[in-house]
Amino acid sequence: MISIKNISKWYGSFQVLTDCSTEVKKGEVVVVCGPSGSGKSTIIKCVNALEPFQKGEITVDGISVGDPKTDLPKLRSRIGMVFQNFELFPHLSVTENLTLAQIKVLGRTPEAARDKALKLLDRVGLMAHKDKFPGQLSGGQQQRVAIARALSIDPIAMLFDEPTSALDPEMINEVLDVMVQLAQEGMTMMVVTHEMGFAKRVAHRVIFMDAGKIIEDCTKDDFFGTQRSERAQLFLSKILHH
Amino acid sequence: MSGYDFDVIQRSWVYLFRDGMTFTLTLTALAMVGGIFFGTLLAMMRLSRFSILSYAAGGYVNLMRSLPLVLVIFWFFFLVPYIGAWAIGAKDPVKVGSFMSCLITFTMFEAAYYCEIMRAGIQSVARGQVWAGYALGLNYWLTMGKIVLPQAFRNMLPVLLTQTVILFQDTSLVYVISATDFLGAAAKVANRDYRLVEMYTFVAVVYFIISFGLSLLVKQLQSRIAIIR
């Protein structure tokens, strides 16, 4: 579904990604982890062309992301994305956040969009907050709305960019629960996260990145087993023991 | 108060407001709408990744902001008829009324100032908001129109209105082309009846009341429209 081939990216003369290749198959859940500055957020933003890359090729469902002829809005409307800082639209109500793209991008009627929005809000347990504004919700609630918003366009795959990093600890689980449920329903997911518990529960594969390179790309069992690099072991020992 | 005759106000205020203030307020309102519209477009151009657009807009803004308004009003009044003739291919200069000439001048001049306000407004919206719009499949215009600009307007509304209060005062400069705005109308009466002190004092008081009143309104509004974050 998502194929990343030999991607390299520079900010000026600074190379942030070096020759990264991997693949996410349909229905697969891939967790990307690594220390900060390792390029994991950058690579996930490259997948839906929020960040340009200079070398290599990314295809989503057979369509090349880097090709200048590609209709990017159309391509992006098939991929859901969830951000670290939620990025809900603060001037729109929760329901309007969920209907905007359905109406303006997918051409659904306001009624159909609203029905879909309410169904999704019910699913993430926030029906009671449908008329509130994002600023009136807690961080965890906002991120659940953001997940519902990403789902509102019926994506073929979901990208998560550190979805729980900006949350207070007690809110992390309510977001992870929604994500676990989504994974169990067979959604194709690429998740940048430090939540190794999530990886252990639902990931099929784990990618470990450091300094712009993919160091490990293996099955979950291998990753949490013994078959891993020293660098990955060191990273895991640091984040698992706190 | 011997020697002063404030009755002149009593005799002329209907004319001052009916002719003069109508001109001033209409000009202010239309130039504000036009200025914000073109200013927003200019701001979008300035922030564009196409360098031709951003240089063109930047050059225009810097030029307008470096010229005295009086000069621009003057210059346009004499030039617009010829530009109009050139644009439609007519031989003779196009007749443009003084109101129309003022409106074009103020719209173009104020657009440069509103541009800088809107540019700050657009930049005040977090980068992630644009990403979120794009990620949902919205194109540039929808992302701007539905996500960035509504927030930019809200963030900048007090500054936009303050600029409008300045515009309201600046419209009095149309006296250089003998347009009959509020000040122009008062000047005519003042000269006719030789009551300069009385009329100009009255004009000052009226400008003060309106400008200060608007400023107070802006302050009130500011606390009301803040987006809940």
What's this model, at a glance?
The complex is a heterodimer of chains A (242) and B (229). Chain A is of the alpha/beta class and 242 residues long. Helix content of chain A is 37%, strand content 25%.
The chain pair forming the largest interface, with residue counts per chain, is: A-B, 30 and 20 residues
User: The CATH topology of chain B is what?
Assistant: MetI-like fold
Oligomerization: heterodimer
Unreliable segments of 5+ consecutive residues of chain B: none
Structural class of chain B: mainly alpha
Number of helices of chain A: 9
The general outline of chain A is globular
β-strand percent of chain B reads under 5%
Physical arrangement of strands within the biggest beta sheet of chain A: 6-7-8-3-9-10
How many discrete domains of chain B? Answer: 1
Proportion of residues in helical segments of chain A: 25-40%
Q: How would you describe the overall organization of this protein?
A:
The complex is a heterodimer of chains A (242) and B (229). Chain A is 37% helix and 25% strand. Chain A has 9 helices and 10 strands. Chain A has helices spanning 40-47, 72-76, 94-104, 110-123, 139-151, 169-184, 196-202, 220-224, 230-240; strands spanning 2-11, 14-24, 29-33, 55-60, 63-64, 79-82, 157-161, 189-192, 205-210, 213-219. In chain A, a hairpin with a 2-residue loop joins strand 4 (55-60) and strand 5 (63-64). Chain A starts with a strand and ends with a helix. Chain B is an all-alpha fold and 229 residues long. Chain B has a single domain (7-225), classed as MetI-like (MetI-like fold, Orthogonal Bundle). Chain A binds chain B through residues 45, 48, 50, 72-74, 76-81, 83, 85, 87-91, 100-101, 104-106, 133, 135-136, 149-150, 153, and chain B through 126, 128-129, 131-132, 134-139, 142, 146-147, 150-151, 154, 227-229.
